[in-house]
Amino acid sequence: MKSLIVYCSEYKSNTEKIARIFAEKTDCELINIRNVKDVSDINIENYNLIGFGSGVYRESISPKLVKLVDKLNLTGKNVFVFSTSGAGMKYYNNNLIKLLDKKAAIYRGSFACKGSFNAREFTDKKIFEFMGKLSEGHPNDRDLKKAEKFFATVLDSL
Ligand SMILES: Cc1cc2nc3c(=O)[nH]c(=O)nc-3n(C[C@H](O)[C@H](O)[C@H](O)COP(=O)(O)O)c2cc1C
Question: What pLDDT does 26 receive?
């Protein structure tokens, strides 16, 4: 079975690390959204399972990824969602999950973990500085193991 992962990882390639873990486990193509000029660049007919991944930027996963998902015909496709963020919360995946549901895709689960960031680069709010400290070194080996486990459960659910 062939799978596809479309991801946005424009800050520190944290999300790309997770995408690569999934790709190592199956016959899986990785597409960095940076290289997508038009939705027609992606031929989803070839894939039975499609993962969408993104870093979280200002409380939201990449709007570019959301727009792209909205343009794809995902009816009856098995899909999953993953993100990395300073907070590492699955909550950030919810908007994309809702959209996938609206598009009649078959939702197979969601994964999130922390991704390191340097708060000083974009804010002087103390709360972000604290969050940045907690996110140091992530995704780490434990996160990668968890991602691997998550992916195994997605495959088992097919
Ligand atoms: C401009 C910017 C805004 C961010 N905003 C948030 C945020 O609102 N919440 C959060 O938990 N993390 C936030 N982060 C941290 C990123 O989500 C985290 O570093 C993530 O792993 C980046 O993924 P990437 O390296 O794949 O792009 C932000 C990072 C940047 C650069």
Answer: 85
Domain around 7: 2-156
Interior CA angle at 20 toward 135 and 70, to 5°? 90
Tell me the H-state helices in 8-140: 14-25, 63-71, 94-102, 126-134
Angle made by CA atoms 137, 86, 3, in degrees to the nearest 5: 85
Ligand 1-lining residues (CB < 6 angstroms)? 9-16, 55-59, 84-87, 115-117, 122
Atom of ligand 1 at shortest range from CA of 115: 21
Q: Give the CATH number of the domain where residue 100 resides.
A: 3.40.50.360
Residue pair 59/83 in contact (Cβ under 8 Å)? The answer is no
The count of structural domains within the chain is 1
Is residue 1 over pLDDT 80?
Answer: no
Distance 150 CA to ligand 1 centre (A): 21
